[in-house]
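U., I forgot to send this yesterday:
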Amino acid sequence: MVKAGLDTNSPGNQAGYDADPQYDAIGFSQLHDSGTGGSASLSNFKIWPFASCPSFTECPTSPSSRAVPRKILPNGSPDDAASPGYFASNLSTDIRAELTTTRRTALHRYTFPSSSSEPRLLVDLTDDGLQSGYDVTLLIDPTSGRVTGDAWFEGSFGPGEYHLFTCIDFKGEGYDFQSPNEYGSWTFNSVTQNKTNLSGIYSGSSGALLTFQPATNGTTSILVRVGVSFISSAQACSNAEEEISDWDFERVHSDALAQWNELLGRVQIDPTGVEEEKIQLFYSSLYRTHIVPADYSGENPRWQSAEPYYDSYYCNWDTFRTLYPLFSLHDPERFALITRAMIDIWRFEGWLPECRGATIQQWVQGGSNADPILGEFFVKYHEHAAALNISVSDLYASLLTDSENEPGDWDLQGRQAVAWDNLNYVPDELDSDFGGTNTRQVSRTLEYAFGDFAISQVAKVIGNDTDASKFAKRANGAFNMWNPNVTLPGFPTVIGMMQQKSSAGAFDMYTDPRHCSVNDPTHSTCYLDGNNHDGFYESSPMVYSQFVPHDTAQLVTLQGGTESFIERLNIIFNQSYFDPTDEPSQQIPFMYHYANRPGLSTKQSRQVISESYNISVSGLPGNDDSGAMGSYAVFLLAGLYPVPATTQYLLSSPFFPSISFYNPLFNTTTTIKANNWAGNPVDGVGTVYISNVVVNGEEYKSNCYLEWDLFEADTVIELTLSDDNTLGCGNGVNALPPSLSTGGFA
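Result:
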């Protein structure tokens, strides 16, 4: 839950930090999300050190007045350092700040310059990323220096508010002080010495300020232990005392690093001949996939339950494609805990979560995308559901609720289910007595269809053939939005496109296929906006017309056959409709597989890495979106792409001579070896195409995908690489990746 880090005064500091040295540091806060869009998120309860002030009451306490630059390295970057479980920054005031954490507690270490005779530390209770804190309560214990407090804050991407509590203690490292030399509270830039409490509504900054005795010999380093809770200040104190009773910074850091090393070490690569940047990119991306969702167990103020509670789903729309299928490969126990937590939210709030932060609902971006997430877990781990404490009946019931019960506001949970159930698509006009925004009709239809496909797969596993058939048929509703008469302007051979449709079945509202792309003559954005009635969210009709992951074979047919399908994909790339910054495009590089041209998938997916990812500060093509971009990079580098809620991973060549995935639940390792591996050509052209796949010494059925059973046992998968990009998926009847219309996913 606690992810301590530096906050800057950048206008783009959604997650607190900005590496641009033109922006100053304003505090070291305890809670953060990872690479989200929307408004700034969390960044609560900042700590700030002062080496000196003219006097106690003249310390600049507001964020704007206390901001200082960081020291700058010779390469022009700020003097910050980070690794799993640790962050450090050297401020221009000659103070060094270091941070490490346990689950609900942060431990800070501030090392002051020798000239600092009055080291001071500020606690900011109100200035989260939105500077939204209000209704503050503050109490300073003048004997121990303990600061307890709480405030209410606005949600980052929704209408709600949350209540957060803290408990902060101070201790000299290597020396003792009994009590603060000075203490007081502050609001804005006004410090009141010896005032030990605040209570009431404050529309701006407020908190505590304390002065401590410096070390008499040697360096002055002061430890700050910050417990956080969504329940009470007393629980925040209990969290801190339980998790960091020894005040040992190095021990806490070592424990955190050990946890990260064990987790990341489940995926091993052979680095021989691989560029160092690709290795760093791989593990940095894998690291970012494990920052959120966050384990808030024991910190849910909204209901009492013995089940785990995870939060920071920001949002499932971003992560269902790649994040959770990556968890399936190497972190099933955590995936099970997240699944249980989602089901528990359904028990108490009525629907599965879609977008959630700081315990409150946030805006739904598309479909009810917890459905393919739970489908992903259950299709792969149903045999272990009981051992992992998953209620199968509740899991299935929660999926049915999402699909068939309409909530009071589908902008916050669930679906526009009445229209979906009646028409098998979302029409371009409202026909419901319930609430919700009349937007994104096409993209929501496509996501509802994929959600129902996921439900059909769960139904098959539990033996409910009636529901399996019903939901598979409803998954076909994606094609209800297919208008065969729309062409791409300037490309008359690109015929047929997903379009809006009225409840009477008429395509009476045209959306230019270029809409919301770089080729859009109107330069539209398609973000979440109640006035946006074009039918699509954050991407173009050209991209969304490729999103039917459960039946790409039918797309091939509708788009004129394999050659026309390939031509359309080529246009998507050559005319920059493919958008590496946003999730709806993610499956497109691998779609050539379905036209029996996996070599083209290999070329395009490798070019995505070469052109859009590196390890610089700007090395991501867009927001990391809670690990969505990180997990996508991991899959591309591994030579895989998942079809969520199925047993298939599409196959390409890895960027490494071999890669292995260890599954701690099965205690098994699956290794993919690339024979004839000869490096990673920048243009994706070379000895990178698969000519043959052998599994445990036996010829495999396809060169284009792997089945989940290969990851359930100790398995060696050997790929023979070639420089021939015309090679197909193989000659067997099961060589092409499955689709519903060709009898797949049976």
